[in-house]
Queue: 4 jobs
Job 1
Amino acid sequence: GGGGGRPTPDMNDIFGDIIGTIFGGGKARGARRGADIDYVMELDLEEAVGGVEKRIVIPSLAECDTCNGSGSEDGKVETCASCQGHGQVRFQRGIFAMQQAWPECGGRGQVVRNACRKCHGQGRVEDEQVVSVKMPAGVDSGDRIRLNGEGEAGAPGTPPGDLYVEVRVREHDIFGRDGDDLHCEVPIRISQAALGDTVNVPTLGGEAEIRMEPAESQTGKTFRLRGNGVRSVRSRAPRDLYCRVVVERPVNLSAEQRELLESTP
């Protein structure tokens, strides 16, 4: 019906704005910083265990070097007259006070009259960024480090985002990793298994000589080398290396070798 009464507020709009504000959706409350960048760095096991520093190249939005990120051809920016430089506007919707970025200046509180021809007033250009990343010793797949301020450049007057580098460790030809423990197989000849012998066992630090007695030299037997595993970023002492014995069975036997084996009790 008609009448001059107060309009009924749209509850969907009100609660949509509230939920958007709480959970980061809806309209921005001000000029936002640059976007974060996610990057996956592949490492060899040796690099992950010992730590490494690498330079990576990432595509990103960088600060325009023509206008130094101001967005202005002559470097001059003006205070937004509409919001008096606040970048935000507050308004009342029903019983709720709302706040959002002022559209004319994008929430920055400043406007550019003479836009930079290279970045078209955005203060940012597409570029490649070279970043030096230092991975600590003991990282594993899924670990992530943050480099503050190494993400995409923000809009004029706003800070850059962050760079998140996630580790992915490549499979190793010899060692498997289970948490901070390492595992490997040690192949030995059948004569070594029968008589015992000193064998060379691989470790990340080089080969180690181990004396194996006949009782310890059967396929599936596992022995541990303490302190030859991984020292993680969260612990002081390295874990262990577990070695599984694999007795190599001869495939092509001479008649003499076959007769000798068959005569062995």
Note: Residues 176-258 form a domain with the HSP40/DNAj peptide-binding domain fold (CATH 2.60.260.20).
Job 2
Amino acid sequence: MSGARARRTLRAFGVPAGRADLRELGYALVGPLPGLLGVALLYPVLAVALVLSVTHLGLPLLAAVLTAGRGIGAVHRRLLRGLLGEEVPAPPSPAAGGGAALRARLTDGASWRTLAFVLLAAPLSLLVLAVTVGLRLYGLAGVLYPLWWRSVSADGHRGLSLGTLALDTVPSSLLVALAGLGVLAFAGWVGRRLLVLTRHLGRVLLGPSRLSERVRDLEERRAVVVHDSAMTLRRIERDLHDGAQAQLIAVTLALASARSRLDRLGPDGTIPAADLSRGKELVDQALGNARTAVGDLRDLVRGIHPPVLDTGLDAALETLAARTGVPVRLRTELPGRLPEEVETIAYFCASELLSNAARHSGAELIELTARQSAGLLRLVVRDEGRGGAVLLPGTAGGGSGLSGLAERVRAVDGILRVDSPAGGPTAVTVELPARPGVTT
């Protein structure tokens, strides 16, 4: 029997067979503590606050209950994250201080949802403990019954009895062992579903509302867009200052010097040959600087919106594939033009990902696939290289490389996923909304 199958068999009978199972067992043991604390502190105070809620004394007391519930809810969130692997973000806190703050706390939906979880957590966590620990111990005792039944003496016979039926023979002890296996399997099945319910209640009651999550997500995206725009303007300013501006200043100085040379007249009223030759050299130099400035400006414009996109994303991807130093197998299914912002970000994503694969993967062939269907553009860059690419979480607007791409993709409601185990292969998937007007 393989190791994975053995673990599944053990898990089916409620026996911990891995770190996740041990963490779940740890949650069953520790989870009742904040639940019982909530019962001991909040139930009586909440009852008094509800009775006094018709007076001025009840409202501050009720607000204090909500605040304490938030504190106990934070403990529950840490347990869910640390032991069950359930990441539940904290909801935004209501304003603090003053009469308006009291009203804000009493009308804060997140505080009431957290209080509901704290009050429900006590009986639910005790039920998890009873099933996960108590019922498993009961089943384990049954499984081991053939080993210890002879050491128990009751009513003049060995072993236990079920009513008037004595379980004092080897066959009956084996039947008890089978029943114990059934109890273990039942305890494991019920325990897993109770933990699923706990996770679900944690997400719904302890986390922010969908509207709050959407607002926070939009704020983060706005920060990314604003930072990216600022960086783009800064880059344009730097490129203009260091490139085109410097070249145009050189053109101006060269032309001024040439003009002063050509203004010099000899005794016979003609321009000396040396000045004429030098003036031509200066004009040629100015012409070269002007051409360099034009090239710099063309590159700058290409970095803002690549002209190759004027003929469509499929043609732009073909150009990118041809320019990559490693052979690229390109597959495109793009029936029509996409919104301009989607084509632009898809082009830059493909450019960055192809460049990364060519420089770091060591692969001899890169696959680039672009498909549009059901209002979604899916871009996949895959290679058979060394793997090990990691998408590190970054702060808003502060990412570079894959994290920077992920932030830009997320700013238009897109998703970037990286699948790159050590040793390869690597597949980076970018999904962008492709319906006109979706990202505006």
Note: Residues 395-399, 436-440 have pLDDT under 50 and may be disordered.
Job 3
Amino acid sequence: MSAAPWTSGNQFATTTIPALLIERVKNDADANAFFQRRAGAWVPTTWKGYANAVCSVSAALGAAGVARGDRIAIMGDVSQEWLIADMATICSGAVTVGVYFTASVEEVRYYLEDSGATLAFAGSAEQLRVMKAADTSSRLLKIVVLDPDWKRSPDETGMNVVSLAEFASHFDGDEVAYLREQSELARPTDLVSLGYTSGTTGAPKGAMLTHVSMLAGAFTWPTFCPAILSEPQRMVIHLPLSHTVARIQATTLPLIAKTVPYFVDVSADFAKCIQEVRPTSYMAPPRFYQKFATQIINHVNGSSEAERRNYTLALGIAREVLADRQDAGTGDPFKEQLYAICREHVFKPLLARIGFDDLRYPYTASAPVPPEVVTLFQLWGVNLKENYGQTEMVGGNLAQVTDWSRPGNSGVPLDDPAWETRVLPDGEMIVRGPGLFIGYWNKEAETKAALRDGWLYTGDIVDVGADGSYKLIDRKKELINTAAGKSISPVQVENELRQSPYITEALVIGEGRKYLTALIEVDGTLAMDWARTHDPSVTQYADLASSQPVIDLIREEVEKANARLARAEQIKAFRIFPEELTPENGVMTATRKKRRKALMARYAHIIAGLYDDAEEQLIKEQLVGSGTAASVHRQ
């Protein structure tokens, strides 16, 4: 690959995705563009092979009647076929509508109808079933199945369903010439994608993304991690490709950086895939890091006494070194030498068990991360950093850039004059830059509320520290106003609760109430392991909610959090969720963001039991008895 010419997001105002694909094919035709795990082996595809597949599908889209600007839905598991369908759609001048592979029939129907998609790709037989059931208006000209092992069932004869192999035959022409022809028809400001937001409050909104949005947004990554422009990087792709972060990792970042995506085999053990690839760069929500940390801790706890003793000694040295690095910016040379030995002989073998022994550039975003998780990985020698972004800005505008950064903040604004970040008097952060979306599809009012004078109003309340770091405090519209008139951030309280290793998620309640309460999701693995030695009656996750020893354990964790909170923010009562929170039961998005309204509705009967409404009920009874407030006064 030729030396990267990129220095600022502003440079992408004059280019397009097909144009950059041409450059990669011309300069790196025989280099590996990506790997796909199939039947236990990692199978590479070169840039020339990638381009050929893209041209094949793009030409087939044109032959099927797809015109520039048409919307094409892609619903599928993580795979190279998803990537090829996406890139082919973009090169054809059409618009990708990413659909989460776990979406229900109702959700898919909404995406199809809202976007007006005319053709769809379905990843598997199950996703084909969902897609067909969702297409009640019969708008789809054709549904193409991406799974190379898919076989047509007898009842699909004569229908508009075809395999990818049937749809797109091998491309025999000149890939560069074909892509150049398509590139000449494209403009940087053309729409290439509808990135649907997670819909935590109301129906999902389709963020309209252009070539500039996708490329300038992707370039925010090397802006806070310049090494990926010059050093080859192994990057595991396992998040849904309809998610903006995964989409950047797979589709646009490899066009401008030296990242090589590795697509996991959904039928294989995810942890095994990570171990095999040993990623050098990795981005994932906090929950994944928490699970990886738990795996290591469980292994240490099950090791020999000598191994546990060595681990404890190494951890003590690591604590001193990390404290020196964070306080003074550098460690004591002698301690650093001791730590290097600990890192090589104690921590590195443990990290190898989860495939993190060569991980150089780890990041986490999309949700608050418990500080203990970050600190633990730092002690093990993994330089985990936090950052912040939204679908509406494609990439991110905040990132921790200092090595061994203290946890608890999202970093500082990007060092790129193309991007600006400001904080309004009410604490809301607003952002301006070339990677922003251009509005919400078919939603003019929501667009006007989010985009004003070129600024994206993020809806996130932030606090800027003395060192210039930004800490997310809350969503602007998610403040709780208690009956006592206190305005409280539920997210801040939930973050304190989630510092416990036993608590993976929490829902704080208190709007119009006298005090705060919480519903708590416990870590299934840790809680079940703990319960095995403390409550033999616990045999499944559902038993945890009624186990008195488990309740007592979580009460202690809640009390620890309360000790760090102001009096009005403290949790007075709690219950444990009787089930794990998942997108399938409608209370979480595909990226594990809470749907507060759905949670409140689904567990209303549990929430009701958290409050003593005797006073309120007494007043109601008085009013019902005589029909007027005056009669209450006479009593």
Note: The first strand starts at residue 32 and ends at 38.
Job 4
Amino acid sequence: MTSSKPSVLLIETHPEPSREKLAPYIHWLEPHFAVTNVYIAALESTIVEQDAIVVTGSEWEILKNPVPEALLRLYRETAKPLLGICWGHQTLALAWGASIISKPIIQTIEKMCVLKQDEFLDGMGETFYGFESHYEHVVRNPVLLEHFDVLASSPSCEVEAIRHKKRPLWGAQFHPERSGELGMPFARNFYRIVEQLSCR
């Protein structure tokens, strides 16, 4: 029996590759995963060798910049556990037909309410806190709800966390990797999800 960590492909989606911006994600994931990163422009195939996938946030605005088709295909085709963060959360929802809107920028620690219990939110209780930094929001409408359960909301954003109804796909509008100790349980919960799915 091996005690090695599961592997994760970290897809960097910043306008330019940036080790500085990538560092919080690596720091957040490395206690639980062996991390390999790839820049989004180099993403060509939907076949991923790693055990799981994490898609980062980005300064790109979806309403102004086309989302690479390779990423949208990955969202629709992968069977691997996947977590999209901020921009990754928004583009995950977009891949399944959801709408995105723009609002004034939010940059704060936000209190979130759990709407539906889920492994990703394990241990969070009824409310939790996380760091927010975004303009764009996923719209809670029938198209989104056809494909995703909304797991959490906040006063500033009604779609803070989602889970696909049939696939192992999660999205978080907030930034667990930039939430300090408040965000560490989410990496652990995602690790547990990956471990459980790998045993099936």
Note: Strands lie at 7-12, 34-39, 52-55, 82-85, 100-114, 127-138, 148-153, 161-164, 169-172.
